[in-house]
From TrEMBL:
GO cellular component: extracellular region
GO terms, molecular function: mannan endo-1,4-beta-mannosidase activity; translation initiation factor activity
EC primary class: hydrolase
Protein name from the UniProt record: Eukaryotic translation initiation factor 2 subunit beta
Reactions performed catalytically: Random hydrolysis of (1->4)-beta-D-mannosidic linkages in mannans, galactomannans and glucomannans
Domain of life assignment: Eukaryota
Subunit structure: Eukaryotic translation initiation factor 2 eIF2 is a heterotrimeric complex composed of an alpha, a beta and a gamma subunit.
GO biological process, one term: polysaccharide catabolic process
Function recorded in the entry: Component of the eIF2 complex that functions in the early steps of protein synthesis by forming a ternary complex with GTP and initiator tRNA. This complex binds to a 40S ribosomal subunit, followed by mRNA binding to form a 43S pre-initiation complex (43S PIC). Junction of the 60S ribosomal subunit to form the 80S initiation complex is preceded by hydrolysis of the GTP bound to eIF2 and release of an eIF2-GDP binary complex. In order for eIF2 to recycle and catalyze another round of initiation, the GDP bound to eIF2 must exchange with GTP by way of a reaction catalyzed by eIF2B.
Amino acid sequence: MDLQQEQEACWKLELDKVTKLDPSKKKKKKKKKLFIREDATYDSEPDYGYAELLSRVFDMLREEEVSTERPRTVMMRRPQLLAQGTQITVCLDFAHLCTTMHRKPGHVIKFLLGQMETKGWLNKQHQLEMKGLVSSQHFQAVFQRYIDAFVICSCCKSPDTALAEDNGISTLSCEMMNMKLPPHRYTCKKMKDRLGFRFVLCSAVFMILTQHRALANSHGVNSEEEWEMVQRKGQQFTLNGQPFYVNGFNTYWMMTLAADNSTRGKVTDVFQQASAVGLTVGRTWAFNDGQWRALQKSPSVYDEDVFKALDFVVSEAGKYKIRLILSLVNNWNDYGGKAQYVKWGNASGLNLTSDDDFFTNPTLRDFYKSHVRTVLNRVNTFTNITYKNDPTIFAWELMNEPRCPSDPSGDKLQSWIQEMAVFVKSLDAKHMVEIGLEGFYGPSAPARTKFNPNPYAAQVGTDFIRNNQALGVDFASVHVYPDAWISPAVSDTFLEFTNSWMQAHVEDAETYLGMPVLFTEFGVSAHDPGFNTSFRDMMLNTVYKMTLNSTRKGGAGAGSLVWQVFPQGAEFMDDGYAVYLTRAHTASKIISLQSKRLAIFNSLCGWRCKWGCKKKNHTALDALLSHDDEL
């Protein structure tokens, strides 16, 4: 098996391969002269279609009692490792990996720990905990050795093997050949006998399929590009081994409007227009609790029509190659939020007095977990893909702008974050998780509170550095709203604050967190005194330049999402921050230019590639960067 690049989002084990034919090594045979009798008569062969030819091939296979299965490919995702401080490393999806290989966890653990010369154990969640810091690259290499030795038949390359131990000796039983095979010391005799026949038939099938595909392509039918999940590697996002810097947007109301056929088209308009200017990630709500067009009408009771509306949103995003950050609950009363959970708790007999009881009450925590479980395990009615397996989803957001002002120490919120991040990861180890923080500094970093927009920000129970150090959190989120935090009147202090606020969080993500930071909301309201579109354009340029400053050096500043993109005809949902791409021409050009810049960075040679890389031509990017002030 080939596992060369640690950037790959999953391992691809190519199984049941037949030996490749090397035309250069094939012995030349003398051509035989063909003599045809003049008096002979021949019936012309009928012209078979693709389906008929393929059917004939498989009929021949069945007659020879040879397996008709296509060469198998087993997809194994890359092990998900999380460091728990500096003493423990956890493999979150260890149980899933063992199940995929059909191997007992005990046998796998014994091999892995012996090879890595460390100690380890299974925790209550059936996750492998190992002493010390174990790198992803080292763990993958050792895991690969286990698969080579104890999973794959080295002759027929079949994964359908069983492992048995007799007096301490491990043997593989290859189910396809029904033979007991000690690892690395066996041959598959039946395979040799049938290899020639199978190769001829497989070659025939390949030729037919190739011709059929060429014919389809000649009529304009092209296969879809593989849609992979974005992963985090160190302080960058990666996709197929390449950097993935984000230029994105927010449109929170998409599920609500998709629930009504008369407004569903607005969702398509959003994705169409966002895609046209190169936006690659959108952020929206996967909640609406107890309100108008509620998704969750009461704890664990859902409106199926609204859920189908969310299915539509995810499906449409995939069509336009836009990934989604799905937020799971609101801190604010809009769309229900934590206040609605408290109402549900009181209705069930609890005596709750504060909305912040959402973070501490066991019943409300269970309500939230139930909602998370329902969303992650939802099978999309449009795509038939389970949400937790859908690469269209970029990440899960625990809560939109969590705050717990009743506990300025931050302990209550920290406990909730720690529990819920691990819970989400236990259900879905493949997708990334972020908290949804605004980015306020708290008691754990008093020296950094000077960057907060006001003194009150340090008293709302959030703590940017401490919160994002919780196990299970993959990247940090920050919001940028100087008009809401400093003064509603537009002034140059907005831009000064934005520069210092973003720079501080990029530095902390690199120095203390070692993870990407995404500026998931930023904007300026048309309702602000002194607002004009020119100032909004200046705000866009300021945020984009700060992101590029980090991008140039491969830093932790992973991108930004403007609040928010609107299509025409949705003005009744406008909160003052809407950017109408079809009529805000200058803003659209700025956004499009940023998308082009990041697209070039994303095409660089690898996740460690920086501005000084000589493997790519940066001429195009130099030209784009020279337009910084022209718009």
